[in-house]
TrEMBL record:
Protein's UniProt name: EAL domain-containing protein
Species: Paraburkholderia ginsengisoli
One family name in Pfam for this protein: HDOD
Superkingdom assignment: Bacteria
SUPFAM superfamilies: EAL domain-like (SSF141868), HD-domain/PDEase-like (SSF109604)
PROSITE patterns named among the record's database cross-references: HDOD (PS51833)
Domain named HDOD: residues: 240-430
Matches recorded under SMART domains: EAL
């Protein structure tokens, strides 16, 4: 889950000059083929104390889209100001970059639903999640009907079993999200059957084990949210895009500062790797002025450092013909590695060697999801340094603290991030949030001319 900082608003409704205090967290949503099809955005909003005059003022919806920052009449309530700050954050370009072209699922409060600020969210890019705890009355239902007429789509969130709110909201939603950890297992088959018959898409939340994915997949669920795909047990269902031994041999060779002739000889043993490298050299603008036609030219145009990073990330690429931005494991590995690199550069006395070590720590932190078996054995084969291995295996040292931070970021564990930042000064929660956004955008962009990831296809 990647975190995105947004604006704080003052008691007057204006944007404060103070540090950003609210953040979004991004968690992947996969389709039945195990590919990315969306992200849930969890919002950590700024806490604004209400004034005596405004505390209990209800929001009043209208039928026309207006700029919420220029609404006439009485000033907005604190809840409305928070809602509008959230909307401003969701529609900024940095957030769009982190979503990498996928739709966003976002929790919406009653205040946000009833405020015209919500009309600034593009209906084709956002699905609005409705909590079962919402106060469902005639005013809310009328607003859902109105927003549905503007092509907004709704998700019934956190379902464990049918109740009164479930029955009232079900006719207006397109997706039903079921909390697999809390829903009675015996109820799932019947619940899935009834909802599928009603034409609803089913989303299984909290899928962190391969067995849960397989069980809900078998029941006909359409979407899956959780990190089951990054666990070692999922490796049997995943095909890498080049033979594993070929990638490991290449990484071991690259670790020893090889000559061009040595690299050329190793690559020639692996036609799949040669094909990828030729595509990389010709598609990324590295070979300026002429087309790369030989392997030696491709190596010289790309450079050993870039070939090493490309090979590290290629470990995670699915063997199917999949665009990078749709491959969940590669996206997670690339985002984590880039975050580690960006974060360590903010720390005192960090240089190029430290940045490289941080990138390696991130990129290999769940290499067991590809290779299976003991993580320590795979790290030994990769001949990683002791500090990197200590960080991955035991979360030791600065690298270990940074790795714990990105893990907390992926889960949206805000208090844990606060505690970790105490160990990583001068980093702040806001710094971590912005770097999470930057790392997600870097990982999600294919065909960068200077840096980033190139599209890998078989």
């Amino acid at each position: 889950m990647t975190t995105i900082a947004i604006e704080t608003v003052s008691q007057t409704g204006a944007i404060d000059d103070a540090p950003l205090l609210a953040s979004f967290a991004r968690q992947p949503i996969l389709n039945r083929d195990g590919m990315l099809c969306g992200y849930e955005i969890k919002v950590r909003a700024p806490a604004l104390p209400p004034t005596d005059a405004e505390a209990n003022e209800p929001a009043t919806p209208s039928d026309t889209a207006v700029d919420p920052d220029t609404l006439p009449g009485k000033p907005p309530t604190p809840a409305q100001r928070v809602a509008r700050a959230i909307v401003r954050g969701l529609i900024q370009s940095d957030v769009r970059g982190a979503l990498t072209g996928h739709p966003a699922y976002v929790d919406v409060s009653r205040d946000l639903l009833l405020d015209d600020a919500i009309l600034r969210l593009p209906a084709e890019r956002f699905l609005l999640e409705l909590s079962p705890a919402l106060d469902v009355d005639d005013a809310l239902i009328a607003r859902l009907v109105q927003l549905h007429g503007r092509r907004y789509r709704f998700v019934l969130d956190e379902v464990t079993q049918p109740n009164e709110s479930f029955a009232k909201l079900l006719p207006y939603v397109d997706v039903v999200k079921i909390d697999i950890a809390r829903a009675p297992r015996a109820l799932l088959p019947k619940l899935a059957s009834v909802l599928k018959s009603a034409g609803k898409l089913l989303l299984a939340a909290g899928i962190d084990a391969q067995a849960d994915f397989e069980a809900t997949h078998g029941l006909g669920f359409d979407r899956f949210q959780g990190y089951f795909f990054a666990r070692a047990q999922s490796s049997a269902t995943r095909r890498v895009s080049a033979p594993r031994h070929a990638l490991l041999n290449l990484l071991q060779l690259l670790a020893g500062d090889p000559t061009v002739a040595q690299l050329e000889a190793e690559l020639k043993l692996n036609p799949v790797l040669v094909m990828h490298l030729m595509k990389l050299a010709n598609s990324s603008g590295l070979a300026v002025g002429h087309k790369v036609t030989t392997l030696r030219d491709a190596i010289n145009a790309t450079g050993t450092d870039r070939i090493a990073r490309w090979t590290q990330l290629l470990l995670y690429a699915d063997g199917r013909k999949v665009a990078l931005e749709d491959d969940p494991l590669l996206q997670l590995a690339a985002t984590r590695a880039r975050f580690m690199e960006l974060a360590i550069e903010r720390l005192p006395e960090a240089g190029r060697d430290e940045a490289d070590a941080a990138f390696l720590t991130g990129v290999f932190s769940f290499v067991d999801a590809v290779f299976g078996g003991a993580l320590e054995n795979t790290l030994n084969v990769l001949t990683l340094s002791r500090p990197i291995q200590a960080a991955i295996l035991r979360r030791e040292g600065v690298l270990g603290a940074l790795l714990s931070t990105i893990e907390a970021l992926e889960r949206g564990e805000w208090e844990r991030i606060v505690a970790l930042c105490e160990r990583l000064q001068p980093l702040t929660v806001e710094d971590v949030a912005q770097m999470g956004l930057a790392a997600a955008a870097w990982a999600g962009v294919a065909d960068r001319s200077a840096e980033g990831l190139e599209r890998i296809e078989d």
